[in-house]
């Protein structure tokens, strides 16, 4: 069915120079000779085969396949060239009669060619022993040009000889395809694909090349193989096809052309500058610690997973970053970048950094993973669903909530640029003791407080939106707020002021059962809001007056607990309590106005009530309280 040579030893009953077909011939469907291994045949001792003539008049791509001597494997399909296989005799000695020839191009010695006995494959035919080109020693400071012969294909367009030395190699394939297929190459010079398509048919076929340069009309195809290069230079119009392979880049470089295909792209160091989008790149990308990949388009790394232990720099980039991020590296936005990170980044624990003038947009919790956000630009959350953001956001930038969903912040957020709620709800806390922001809020949606402890919010809230108190704790508003969408207190306490002269809201207030509106001011205070609900309103104005306004109305059906305040039960104050209970707590002084003051209920709870009544002359006070329930 198939035969793969992968580091082992195969012993054939075949004799040089007598046979052209081995006595023990393997017939197979598929032969894979792209790896390492050893092949042994018989050589009559002390006989040493005489070397055939050197095929130095043929194209270099053809010289490694010349002088076919004996066939060992008959295959319908072949993979690899056999160039990395070692040929031995029956005693384990390498069969060799090597000859070296200098190769000159342009008047300069560019390489030394070695010819010797070797193993080679023929396309869709099998494995042979031949005498041909086995190695090219590339000379320091020189470049060997490998040009495809017109119309050459298959073995005639494949170089299976080992490339070694400190020189470079240039591929000129015109409009055709050539391949390199030796897995033991270790040359360190530059590789230039000047034209056509270079296909890599063995792991390490590029040796330890210091630079892979792909010209604007050229293509490099990894073809499922693994290569390591020092630096990448993909010129505008070039194509690098990962094609199921792995490319290790040691020292960054530039990619102005197209990156495509599946596989692995590994940036080990330096800065790799990727210009433009690469929508067809599905390879997984790894950025090592100390390495940077710089993008001017958010789609520069395609759609594969991105393991980031280094830095992903989005320099002026726009668009959607769809890669799934992991690792503890950095994602930096600079130079006006506007990027939406929409991948599943739940495995990313590093940091997002936004410079002034940039914008990072996310749409679900997984987009930020567990990473921190150093925000000097704008962080926008645009969501139609409800989710919790536990990440801490710092910096001098802005936070924007968009979309119809509810976003709950449970982290300690220290960003100072302000918060804008354009749609949906922004909730601080989730019933615990965390979840905070600093600075002002422009609220055109809903701002909700849901903490179990005492929490002071010192910013100012403006806009047409509403505020909700839904946590069991106490939220203290110390600013004078101008939002007009109304306030609902469903649980816990919303406190206006903290014993000083500030702390106020405008718009309607609804205090539901179980909720408390506390007024803690250092002086006289008039609550000028329309008031409704069945909850509790508690006052402490440091012994000064507390009053309702004509706008308060008579819809409140809860309890007014007057603490350290003076309160006149008359006029609009009485109207406001038509359906409500007045409770006189310790420290209160309640003066009942003349006439009948009709309220829903009255509770005496340690406070002082002052009536206009005279003993012994009157039987009914001039200032009479009429109520349904007296406690």
Characterise this structure.
Helices cover 2% and strands 50% of the residues. By secondary structure, it is mainly beta. Among the domains are: 2-130, no CATH class; 508-631, no CATH class. It has a 17-stranded parallel sheet that branches.
Largest sheet: 17 strands, parallel
First-last Cα distance? 99 Å
The backbone outline, from C-alpha atoms, is rod-shaped
Which regions are unreliable across 5 or more consecutive residues at pLDDT < 50?
Answer: none
Structural class, judged by helices and strands? Answer: mainly beta
Count of individual beta strands? 64
Radius of gyration: 41 Å
**Average of per-residue pLDDT values:** 94
Strand content: over 45%
What fraction, in percent, of the residue positions are helical?
Answer: under 10%
Short description:
By secondary structure, this protein is mainly β. Helices cover about 0% and strands about 50% of the residues.
Topology:
Blueprint: E1 2-4, E2 9-15, E3 21-32, E4 37-42, H1 60-63, E5 68-79, E6 85-88, E7 99-105, E8 108-122, E9 126-138, E10 143-147, E11 158-159, E12 162-165, E13 168-180, E14 190-200, E15 211-214, E16 218-221, E17 226-229, E18 232-234, E19 239-241, E20 245-249, E21 253-255, E22 258-260, E23 263-267, E24 271-274, E25 284-287, E26 292-295, E27 306-308, E28 311-315, E29 318-321, E30 325-327, E31 330-334, E32 338-341, E33 347-348, E34 351-354, E35 359-362, E36 372-375, E37 378-382, E38 387-389, E39 393-394, E40 398-402, E41 406-409, E42 419-421, E43 425-428, E44 441-443, E45 446-449, E46 454-457, E47 461-462, E48 466-469, E49 474-477, E50 487-489, E51 492-496, E52 509-511, E53 515-520, E54 525-527, E55 531-533, E56 536-540, E57 546-548, E58 559-562, E59 566-569, H2 571-576, E60 581-585, E61 589-592, E62 595-605, E63 608-610, E64 623-630
InterPro entries: Autotransporter_pectin_lyase_C, Autotrns_rpt, Pectin_lyase_fold/virulence
Organism: Burkholderia ubonensis
Keywords: Signal
